[in-house]
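User: Structure tokens for this complex, please. No commentary.
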Amino acid sequence: MSLERVELRRIAMPLVSPFRTSFGVESDRDILIVRVVGAADDGSLDGWGECVALAEPTYSAEYVDGAQHVMEGHLLPRLAEAAPAGIDAADVGRILAPVHGHPMAKGAIEAAILDAQLRAAGVSFADLLGTATDADGEPSRIPSGVSVGIHDSVDELLATVQGYLDDGYVRIKLKIEPGSDIEHVAAVRDLIGPDVPLQVDANTAYRRTDGEHLAQLDQFDMLLIEQPLAEEDIIGHARLADEVETPICLDESLVSAEGTADAIDLGACEIANIKPGRVGGYLEAIRIHDLCLAREVPVWCGGMVETGIGRAANAALAALPGFTLPGDISASTRFYARDIVTDPITVVDGHVTVPTASGMGFDIDREFLDSVTTSTTTIS
Ligand code: OSB
Ligand code: MG
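Assistant:
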């Protein structure tokens, strides 16, 4: 496609309830949406991508103002210069590689271009991946897990978890931090019984010396412990994997296929959380899926509190065969009273049907999007 202009939109989206993790509390999201407008042989085309950077650099180094800044000043000019006549999503990673880091900003641009290309071809992302239908030719469905924030009291936590069980979620993930861990997990395991899959996410809140403490979680028969240690601490995670029986899963540490392969080789990554935004886009996410499948490392699709733009594409990705564990792909209503797409993700019998609308699998609710837009910067 040839790029005519790029719109960088910021939207304000209140969450239905505050979401607390070991790195902070989110009550409202300030989200950067990328729209690419261009021309194809058979007409004009349009594509949308969502940047998963949060408002503050507390989950990773990226944050939404920084993502917009690097797009305007460094990423979009490189695309315009490298491909004045046209751009293919498959080339975006290579063109932007001279800019170090900023995978969330790069991934959002690539996603918007991929969306535009697929829409122009009348093909869905699920068609491209081969995940639109299952082995019986029926529409693919993926199991839906929910990520539960840290609660002040165990009683409040149990009430929230019960609500999600009533909604049908088939897997519970609890956010933990020192002081809100063993007791909280014990109470939830007691509530949900032995058969509901359970896992925890520490978002880097522990230290290398916490192995003995974290080994107390082994008694609760959980799927995994997600990112207990710092993003850079691959060796620490490998040591922890020897000390703790529950599999260690990496999230923040995994930002590329190469790094994921190394973490696996070092014994630090027994399970991988693949988040397309964090690794620089859907194409790198597919490469990570493929290498994990070849190495028999189970993977699941994480979430970044996405709107329907990111959520639809995540669902198509999560139907690939290596995604053997339920992802954090909950209903849009888990976070937002109203979504910016006309076809928000829903959960029926604990499952999400893989979207097959052409492009990345969603259509924008333009009127509602406009109503939540706080700024638009157009680059042409
Ligand atoms: O660590 O997985 C995480 C949300 C924001 C930032 C980091 C994380 C999360 C979640 C929620 O756990 C996942 C979701 O349902 O979108
Ligand atoms: Mg995580």
